[in-house]
Write a structure and sequence with these properties.
Distance between the termini of chain A: 37 Å
Number of domains of chain A: 3
Strand content of chain A: 15-25%
Mean pLDDT of chain A: 89
Oligomer: homodimer
Shape of chain A: globular
Radius of gyration of chain A: 23 Å
Order of helices and strands of chain A: HHHHEEEEEHEEEEHEHEEEHHHHEHEHH
Number of helices of chain A: 14
Structural class of chain A: alpha/beta
Helix content of chain A: 40-55%
CATH topology of the largest domain in chain A: Nucleotidyltransferase, domain 5
Largest sheet of chain A: 5 strands, mixed
Number of strands of chain A: 15
């Protein structure tokens, strides 16, 4: 069955202006992904004439998004062209993360390099949003000043939050582990940069999409700190759901008559594989060292720790079997804090998938980004927005 | 977070030619959805100049896809324009359905009207694909001849099949209720029309998207004949999965240690809500009248029938709760043969959703299309392909 032609999805007509902006984006994406390269190489990859690409490139060089490296090294066939690279002094993305136990900020340039970073350990559980956002703003200012010292111009700030974020990308509807409900973080953060608020598991999945080993396309990204989230990526796009609440994987029923869950349901995945449930099953008390201690004990072969992680892996496998049967993703990626527990979770998890997935099962990949995913995803989401519509940062559009 | 500009998804550059073809599609879709209308009205809806739209319209009229109805009725303000309508004599879509107990074919014109129909009751369970496709071809020929008599030119044939279809849209990987495995139906059907093979639940969901009451956008469409399928529609597009196997909702685990399932798993939804399980629970034997008898008995308030449907509704509610928590769809639509059992399934189903969905639950809609969905979806998928790229049916592209 043919897919509709893409422009129909936008609802706006094709115009010369829209076409130019999309072609500017193609030039930026091509050189960012595969550069440095000559105008001729860019033209041939994109499928436009060299003259058309040259006009676009000139505009991007003038705006400081691309730079010319000078003639390509001699010895190549043909007339030497000047190689083009994405500027390391242009617009940059600022990412921030509000965690239960920490705050972090990083600045990433258009080449994808982290150019500044600031972090602070702080117990945010139960703190009001006002002091937390004030602390975060101080970190943002520090990181931005460092980046500006390196010639960068931050184009926006994306903040990763451990909770449900409304589709307005500003309101934290519910962050149970911070005890925040219905707060507009953009209003609280203020500041000079445009701010976007996003669920941390979503940003972890986007980081995997943009930076990870997973083949781009369709995958399910499961991550957990205190809660368990899953993000579904389809055709390289994150599925957000009608109200932005997609990914509540921790509340997939595993045993419908199991223990009651904070959500009002019974036997949700979180009751078997959430951090608290697993630590309890492993006999590790509150404040006793958490996931680090659990990993240590499992590594030492302690049977309670190994059994607790095996039980969590089984429950995750049951919930994932339903997900894989429903969505048939290309792959499943284990990210976030979970990824370091993978050696003990995976065998039981894969056993359940093997038993329960109607069609030949696929393996589980473990994210290389681990707990860094959400912060990197936040900064890169700003960078991607610049690559997707470069004219927006320099033209009055 | 900004979405990438849409053209980037295609991987192909914007060209004048591509732009023209997309604008032809806009004209067709606009007039098909809201026509008849004048050139001026079409131009204003699409956001192009009247001159640009007139050129596109002239091309579509010459090709026989649009026709002029003559001057609009007098009394309107301004100079009267000729109203344009989608042609009732142009290209048409042929849809076919291979069911366990029947074969059906229909022909739909560009206006969405069914113009020919042929049907045959036949027990296909266990029959080889060769005689089944031969019977189907005979029905297709009959319906096509009737449509051609009405001035239509069939542009393609889409066949709905109750089984897993590979992404090549020709191979039936597994249709357990027909006992077909790995058969290339396009090769078997042959014929003059381009053939597309598609899973029936997918086509039922597409029919709902195109013709149903569900607001277009994001929904989960659950349907069942013998098996239970669910199709996920995101941003108006059907999610097919990596291998085309998405939607195996019947194999979502409901009670992980429940009865064994044919898929190799345990306690799958199909063991509680599949047709055989429900009939068994209601005390209705094989060959005793099936779903019709069940509906009759439930309607008469017979307690075994009511309890069986209540149990099925509960199991569906558990499986759907996981799905809704994961995907946050705008709505859930009950389609297929199930839709007539909705009065007895829904109360228990909605109770489970209410208990288990982390965010305020939403209602369940019952499809008006019912068992007609897959056949209509098949024919309309051909019509949509014409509207999506009208030039493809008349130009040598």
């Amino acid at each position: 069955m043919s897919e509709p032609l893409p422009a129909r999805r936008t609802g706006t007509p094709d115009t010369q202006q829209g076409m130019r902006r999309r072609n500017l984006s193609r030039v930026m994406h091509t050189i960012a992904a595969d550069g440095p390269m000559s105008r001729a190489a860019a033209a041939s990859r994109i499928g436009l004439t060299r003259a058309a690409v040259s006009t676009l490139v000139d505009e991007l060089v003038r705006a400081g998004l691309l730079r010319e490296l000078g003639p390509e090294r001699p010895g190549r066939v043909g007339r030497p062209g000047s190689a083009l690279a994405v500027s390391e002094r242009g617009p940059a993305g600022v990412g921030a993360e509000i965690g239960v136990d920490h705050l972090a900020v990083c600045v990433v340039d258009l080449r994808g390099e982290v150019r500044a970073r600031a972090e602070r350990r702080v117990r945010n559980r139960g703190r009001a949003p006002e002091p937390v956002t004030a602390d975060l703003n101080a970190l943002v200012r520090r990181a931005v000043a460092e980046a500006e010292g390196g010639g960068l111009r931050p184009a926006g700030l994306t903040v990763a939050v451990p909770g449900l974020v409304a589709r307005d990308n500003r309101t934290v509807v519910r962050a149970p582990n911070l005890d925040w409900h219905g707060r507009d973080l953009v209003a609280l953060l203020g500041g000079a940069l445009p701010v976007t608020v996003e669920n941390e598991a979503n940003l972890g999945a986007l980081a995997e999409l943009w930076l990870g080993d997973a083949e781009p396309g369709d995958f399910v990204h499961v991550s957990a700190e205190i809660g368990i989230g899953a993000a579904v990526v389809v055709d390289g796009r994150l599925l957000r759901g009608e109200r932005g609440f997609a990914g509540e994987f921790g509340h997939v029923p595993v045993h419908p008559e199991g223990p009651p869950c904070g959500c009002g349901g019974h036997g949700c995945l979180e009751q078997y594989a959430g951090e608290e449930a697993v630590l309890r099953a492993a006999g590790i008390g509150r404040g006793e060292g958490g996931v680090e201690l659990l990993a240590e004990r499992a590594g030492a072969g302690e049977s309670a720790a190994v059994a607790a992680l095996r039980g969590a892996g089984t429950a995750m496998g049951v919930a994932l079997a339903g997900t894989v049967n429903l969505l048939d993703p290309r792959s499943v990626v284990l990210g976030g804090a979970l990824s370091r527990l993978a050696p003990w979770l995976l065998p039981a998890l894969e056993e359940e998938l093997e038993r329960r997935v109607a069609s030949p099962a696929r393996g589980i990949e473990v994210s290389r980004l681990g707990p860094e995913g959400p912060l990197l995803g936040a900064a890169h989401s700003v960078v991607r927005a610049v690559l997707d519509d470069p004219a927006a940062v320099y033209a009055d559009v």
